[in-house]
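pinging the channel bc i need a second pair of eyes. not urgent but kinda urgent?? the chain im working w is below, pasted from the shared doc
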Amino acid sequence: MKKGNLETQDELRPEYQRSDFGVIARGKYAGRIREESNIVLLDPEIAKAFPNDEAVNKALRYFLEIAEVSTRLTSRSNDNC
C-alpha cells in the first residue's frame, strides 16, 4: 500500500459506500474460535516453572503416566480384598 495524503487514506473509494458493508460486529467469531482452539492459558506462577510448550507437554505426559500406574495399583489392591 502506498503512503499518500492522510486525507485520501481515510476516505473510501468513490465506488464504495459504507452502507454496502452491513453491520460491523466486533468479535463476531470469537466464540467459535475459542471453542475450536486448544490454547490453554497458564497462571503466571505456573508459566514461570515451564519455559516452553515442550516442558509443559513433558510434565503432563509424566503426570499421566503416574496417574495410570496409580490407577492400576489401586484397582489391583481392591481386587484382592
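so Residues 53-79 form the longest helix (27 residues). and The two ends are 76 Å apart (CA to CA). — does that match what u expected or am i reading it wrong
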